[in-house]
Amino acid sequence: MIETYITKMFGIKHPIIAAPMGPFYTTLLTVAVSEAGGLGVLSHTNLHGKSSVDEMKKNILYVIEHTDKPFGINIRTSRMQPDAQDLVRSIPKFILEHQRAREQCVYF
């Protein structure tokens, strides 16, 4: 185990942070990286006309159901991303309402 500022800050074993590769689903990758001791990061997904807020909530719940390790979330906030404002407002509230998500989501 390598101890660095990053490992201490995020509570992970290895100084590895998964790149948030949106707009694709990275839920399984997030679980795998977090379970391996790195920091898995959920991507902002808005494929197939689904609600990105609902999809992010489902992804967060999946991650906390399948690992007890730290993870992160990424939201694209460019001008071309019309749903970013809804995500930035809704997802922090959702995380604060769920104890496990609040404990495990260490990067936003």
Verbal overview:
Helix content is 46%, strand content 8%. With 108 residues, it is mainly alpha-helical. The chain has one domain (16-107). Strands 1-2-3 form a three-stranded parallel sheet. α2 packs parallel to α3 (52-66) and α3 (52-66) runs parallel beside α4 (84-97). The longest helix is centred in the middle third of the chain and has 15 residues, at 52-66. It is globular. The two termini are 24 Å apart. 31% of the residues are buried.
Outline = globular
Order of strands, main sheet, comes to 1-2-3
> Overall mean pLDDT score?
91
Order of helices and strands: HHEHEHHE
Poorly predicted ranges: none
Tell me the helix content.
Answer: 40-55%
What is the number of independent domains?
Answer: 1
Count up the helices.
5
> What fraction of the residues are assigned to beta strands by DSSP?
5-15%
Alpha-beta classification: mainly alpha
Summarize the main sheet.
3 strands, parallel
Distance between the termini: 24 Å
Give the beta-strand count.
3
Provide the gyration radius in Å: 13 Å
